[in-house]
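CBS domain-containing protein
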Amino acid sequence: MATKHEKILQYIESLPVGDKISVRQIAKEMSVSEGTAYRAIKEAESRRLVSTIERVGTIRIEKKKKENIERLTFAEIVNIVDGQVLGGINGLHKTLTKFVIGAMKLEDMMRYTEAGSLLIVGNRARTHEMALKEGAAVLITGGFDTTEEVKKLADQLELPLISTSYDTFTVAAMINRAIYDQLIKKEILLIEDIVIPLKRTSYLKTTDTVREYNLLNAETTHGGFPVIDKHGKIVGIVTSRDLIGKHESDHIDRLMTRNPITVSLKTSVATAGHQMIWEGIDLLPVADEHGILQGVVSRQDVLKALQMAQRQPQHGETIDDLVKKEMEMDVSNDEMVIKFNVTPQMTNQFGAISYGAFTTLIVESGSFALKKVKRGESVMENISIYFIKPIQIESTITVKPRILDMSRKFAKMDFEVYSEDLLVGKALATFQLLER
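Predicted structure tokens:
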């Protein structure tokens, strides 16, 4: 049974794209308190169903699929550039295909300006008008205004006319940064990408017995199942180990493991994998914020997803990607050495390698070394950097990882970092080894 919160979210999702909503309107429509309506709208905003703009209100926008996440709506552009909407409010939900910087003659500008694009330009009213007629939205930089005729045209064509106090170069950089951040988000695998949905999930109820477990086990060959109550809320998990020597008439709710670890659809696959390995579990139930079962993920699903992700090209580079790109492995005389170049993106305000980049270098070096020995993946469990000297920008450094102890599930490693034969860093780390 859906909660009030879920019903409001379903209602918002059913609204036509472009509709304006408010706390008072939702509260009246759904017969809930304004506090409940406010929380649901905030949740809808985090799910990218709506966008809230100062002095305009909250607008229903198109929910973007993961493959199109890098395409921004004009409503999101307003928030990115701290803009003010001068006209065309009804078009804020639309998605822009590209942006054009208006730093050329009018006729040249119009060659690049087309329907669905955003023209970034200064106080040139004639250009604003021409761009709107071409079907493009306009972002006016420098805090300038435009004519009343242009504002009326924007309203008539439902094309946003936005003003920002930032200059053209800064605005372009801000939009680029937002798109880049979206690309990085696009590459992060979440549980929602791999979950086995509820309609395909096998589960048991608290009223079921061992007999029902045996029937479900024979049908699916799965060893474990989530257990739900009459409201669909997950209350436990039961595996074959729990039922050894039990009678077929015994009730599941007396044998199950209560309060199982659960994840949400927005949990990253990496986090779920870490939990499963650390806790030694093979099945994770997926639940919403109210504990209602939404599906399951298995350890096999998680490991397969992580392996697939490593084979995909990365569109938006994180600091981890930048560090990996600069690493080069050299194995000679049975000793593994990793060479690394310190680039400007990895430095702090003093021009030395940042602590974060240095930590990433140690972790990736350890993963490299373990993959060579174990031929499998690993996850860093803890790290202690107990000696570090400033390492200058554009230095070439070498990392010497050494395995101190290794069991089936864990490895302890020691690291020495050199710059031109001078010792500049030492660290100890423990890694969890992922079973294939």
